Automatic annotation (TrEMBL):
Record keyword Membrane present: yes
Lineage: Eukaryota, Viridiplantae, Streptophyta, Embryophyta, Tracheophyta
Originating organism: Brassica cretica (Mustard)
Signal peptide: 1-29
Ranges of residues in domain Cathepsin propeptide inhibitor: 43-100
Protein name: Cysteine protease
Transmembrane segments: 354-378
Peptidase C1A papain C-terminal domain span: 129-349
Length: 379
């Protein structure tokens, strides 16, 4: 007797469900198959690699439980096919989301003055922009730095943008001092508060009013803001100046692209879920209307699979992400850009002059030497 078609269809559906359940069961097994001893070994290895040492009683065990939770999240994410990015056991794998946010995400949207929105990088129909830009390849980006447990991302984002611009304008890449900003650009009229957070725009304002910023060799990073602002009075002190700063058009990824084609740009992103980022094009999840972390966009490009991305230099050390960088999804469907990258980009401005590299005292010394030489020649 012939079997009715509806019974054959039902049988095929049941078979498909069984096969799918078996497949999902395999994924679940992959996520949970690690024994406690294996996870413990991973944890001990991670502690050594990240130079972690807990002194408080029971702290190592408490951190191990957080580590296990983060490992489960990582494996669940990475087990899904066709992900555009991969998670991993970064240096933050022993932190809860609340701890990570409180320590490492201190960017502030509030400024002490209203932003000046420039039109030099306003994208207009017909503008021809490069398909790819990478300021690292042009020697305009210093090696990735590490803010440590200080919430001074704003200082690193400001300094990174100034370092890049100075290279473009003078031909010289000079590593500058975040610590000078942390110690000296706080209180009073500044909207910056050392390790408690701040924004790059107010940092640019300080650099202008202070007639420049010194190198990090002169004023090295200490990972805290407990010291008073140091007076720098050294004849050979090198510093870099900027003339002004302004915002790129807000909520406009094409204008941000145009800006990045000309120089590295400081932006703010919502970075809570970047804690465990390892590689690939980050697509979220994240808030698109709010930022809590300052970074520098140093380029953009497209993967072989056609995924557009921003190249973002972070300040969490070279052992996070792609050697300290993250690729963030570009050409997002929201005007703010993914994770709010295009909400309020800001950048410094500088004339084509190399005369911002030596201190005023150095120029005075040079002038005295020249006058002395002229005197000797005349007499």
């Amino acid at each position: 007797m012939a079997i009715p078609i509806r019974f054959l269809t039902l049988a095929l559906v049941i078979l498909s469900v069984l096969l799918l359940s078996s497949s999902l069961g395999g994924v679940t097994a992959k996520e949970t198959k690690r024994s406690e001893a294996e996870v413990q070994r991973m944890y001990e290895r991670w502690l050594v690699e990240n130079r972690k040492n807990y002194n408080a009683l029971g702290e190592k065990e408490r951190r191990f439980n957080i580590f296990k939770d983060n490992l489960k999240l990582i494996e669940a994410h990475n087990s899904v096919p066709e992900r555009t990015y991969e998670l991993g056991l970064t240096r933050f794998a022993d932190l809860t989301d609340d701890e990570f946010r409180a320590i490492h995400l201190r960017g502030k949207m509030v400024r002490t003055s209203d932003p000046v929105i420039g039109d030099r990088y306003l994208y207009k129909e017909g503008d021809v922009l490069p398909d790819e830009v990478d300021w690292r390849e042009k020697g305009a980006v210093v090696p990735v730095k590490d803010q440590g447990d200080c919430g001074g991302c704003w200082a690193f984002a400001a300094v990174g943008a100034v370092e890049g611009l100075n290279k473009i304008k003078t031909g010289e890449l000079v590593s500058l001092s975040e610590q000078e900003l942390l110690d000296c650009d706080r209180g009073g009229n500044s909207g910056n508060f050392g390790c408690l957070g701040g924004n790059a725009a107010d940092a640019f304002e300080f650099i202008i009013e202070n007639s420049g910023i010194v190198t990090d060799k002169v004023y090295p990073y200490t990972e805290n803001d407990t010291a008073a602002c140091k007076a720098i009075e050294m004849v050979t002190t090198r510093y870099v100046t900027i003339d002004s700063y302004e915002d790129a058009p807000h909520n406009d990824e094409m204008s941000l692209k145009k800006a990045v084609a000309h120089q590295p740009i400081s932006v703010m992103v919502e970075a809570e879920n970047m804690k465990l980022y390892k590689s690939g094009v980050f697509t979220g999840p994240c808030d698109h209307w709010y930022g809590n972390h300052n970074v520098v966009v140093v380029g953009y490009g497209t993967t072989e699979r056609g995924e557009d991305y921003w190249i973002i230099r972070n300040s969490w050390g070279a052992n996070w992400g792609e050697s300290g960088y993250i690729k963030l999804q570009r050409n997002f469907h929201n005007s703010t850009g993914n994770c709010g990258v295009a909400i309020r980009p800001v950048y410094p401005l500088k004339s084509n002059s190399a005369f911002g590299l030596l201190s005023p005292s150095m120029f005075k010394l040079g002038a005295l030497i020249i006058f002395q030489l002229i005197g000797w020649a005349l007499f």
